[in-house]
Each structure stands twice: as structure tokens, then as C-alpha cells.
Amino acid sequence: MKKLIFSLLTLLFLNACQTHFPILSENDGSDHRVSEKAACQENIEAGELADIDYLLYANKMIDSMTRSKQVQKETANSRIRVYLSPVSHSGGDVDMSFINTSIKNRILRSGLFIVVDDMAAGDFQLSGAFKEIQQAGDSSSCNKNYEEFSLQLKNRRSNAILWSDKKQFN
Question: CB 147: neighbour CB atoms within 10 A?
Fold first, then answer.
């Protein structure tokens, strides 16, 4: 364990040294620096999330929902019937069926909800989406890309939103 920690710290230290003191080429005497456009592209690629990251964000949101005062008040006397709209992702390269199944299982384990397959049978509807958002930078900086995850629990009869939350992440 100590060897692993030492190896990681050494790797981080060496990486930091290379970042602050770029290695100069011996052949032409010029330094190898990344252009701003390439640096922006690297930042975008480094910010990409894996499926498990999306799952972690979804799980945190569901936990937040089940602990909210509004949901606790509504479920104080009985479990509520909820229809789960599939969570969508605008990027399309994420396995959303895995995330939707995980959300359904987490909701069922909370003991506060009865999940129904027919929208007409549900008193509430849980819907959500992951959206990719691009924010243009000025001429000296690159575009900022981030994602936003939103979930909302809505009363289908009154159209009142019982609980809603939004998270932005890189």
C-alpha cells in the first residue's frame, strides 16, 4: 500500500515538474509548447465523463430527493405511485438504460415509492435529462463545455412540482 501511494505521489510530482518546466528540444533549441487551441481541445477531452460518473450523479440526486422535506411529507402516511420517464442524454454515447435501471432500483429500495409502468396509473412522474451545454469563450479563451443533470418529481394531477434539482459539472 505504501509503495502504491509513493508511486502515485512520485508520478504527480514528475508530472507537475514537466508542466512548470517544459523540456526543451535538443535539436532545434525551441520548446515544445501546446498551442492554445490544442490546449482547449485537451481540456474538453479530459473533462469527458464515464458511465459510472453519470450513475454517481444520478444516485446523489435520488438520495437528495428521498431526503427532501417535500417528499418526506408526501410519503409520511403511504407510499406514492410514481411513473419513471426514462432519463435522456443529449450526447447519445452513454448507456442510459443502465442508469435508468439503477434509478428505478434506488427508488424502490427507498421504500417511499411504488413504481408503475403505466403513466396513467401514476400519481407522480419523475423525469430527468443530462444535457451538454457549450458556452462560447472570448477571443483569448476556448469554449467551455459542461453538462447539466436535472431531475424533477411532478404531481400529475395538479402539475405542481414536488421536488426539482439541477447540477452542473464538467
Answer: 21
Host domain of residue 138: 49-169
pTM of the model: 0.66
> How far is C-alpha 154 from the geometric centre of its chain's CA atoms?
21
111: left (phi over 0), alpha (psi -120 to 50) or beta: left
Give the length of the chain: 170
pLDDT digit string, tens, across residues 6-39: 565 665 555 554 444 444 334 444 444 444 444 4
Which CATH number characterizes residue 126's domain? 3.40.50.10610
Q: Is 159 left (phi over 0), alpha (psi -120 to 50) or beta?
A: left
Amino acid at 98: F
Residues of the chain under the 50 pLDDT cut: 17-39, 42-46
